[in-house]
What does this fold into?
Amino acid sequence: MSPIYCGIDWAEGHHDIALVDQDGTQVAKLRISDDSAGFHALLELLSRHGDTAETPIPVAIETPRGLLVASLRATGREIYAINPLAAARYRDRGSVSRAKSDAADARILANILRTDRHAHRPLPADSEAVQAIAVLARAHQDAIWDRQQMINRLRSHLREYYPAALMAFHGPRKPGLDSPRARVILAAAPTPADAAKLSRTQLRALLKRGERPRCGIEAEVERLRGIFRTDCLRQLPQVEKALGHQTAALIRQVDAACISVAQLGTATEEAFLAHPDADIITSFPGLSVPSGARVLAEIGDDRERFADARAVKAYAGAAPVTRASGRSHVVVARTVKNQRLAAAGYMWAFAALRTEAPRTHYDRRRAGGERHTAALRNLFNKLLGCLYHCLQRRIPFDPNQAFPAPMDLAA
It folds into this structure.
């Protein structure tokens, strides 16, 4: 039987299906609803055209996520997530009129698999555990970014009328505006006038509700009283009161963001530590549980996903890319990469500098003329190659193997 290829044009309320054979002839088309009935109609259509558990029909679709994709992945078939920009280029191959329809787009996706299946990668066959870790690790990272945005908004707002709050909580060697101490006190005293009225007893009670400072409660009480009673520029009383109401609202949003970060962090840690790759990943210098979870979330546990270490380095943006044309020949950093993995890799390499072997490697690159970012990216490149090696062979990190001592040349 001639091979069959399936293309799905995804939409919010419905999906268009097209099946083509080896010659490019469309053998079936269908529009299904975005629900369980539509999914079963798709499976029935595939079954009528030779789909079996042993030889499932591959599917091309323009998104790697969603209930439809998750359900198709559960059937064990290969799913190809085609970039919409790439699909648009393929559309120009078949027509110069720029005509477009959902049914035609589904046919184009099916033909992409028919002609260039070898040039596209199927979605990795990651385990259910890794897929859950990916959801949690990405949500945790997003929550951290959201929290920082809220803190930046609060800081910018306080600068307009409440410089004493910034003097007390923001800056080097200060607890930070997101600390429990700052949030409790700013919620109780959202204006400079309220803060100046706080007694030692009230400050002591607020600090006990928030967090106990390392310097001691009494020392912190005196420090805060001195700051809050410092002569500063003030807004008009009614304006200051209105700004205080806004501060109270922002504090509630910061509280919610901090709670989200804490809860997602706990869930991510539990899911990551239960995975068999966790011990290997955390054996690497610079990889803590949160950063290790982010790395695992992006590379997955499908050992067939990457052909070799160079492939995973390119995916992470750790390996440079060469651009050569005529007499021009330049080597530059990659811009097309997994941005989350690249961000986690930068922090990984930076944290690894506290370990002797990675630090020596970094210093050697710097002494050779590389700038900080390039040397750090090279260190990430080396660590990522070592991680690929260790995961493939199920062995922990060995600094002597990863960073062997240079051999002395005989005189």
Summary: The longest strand covers residues 14-21. Residues 237-273 form the longest helix (37 residues).
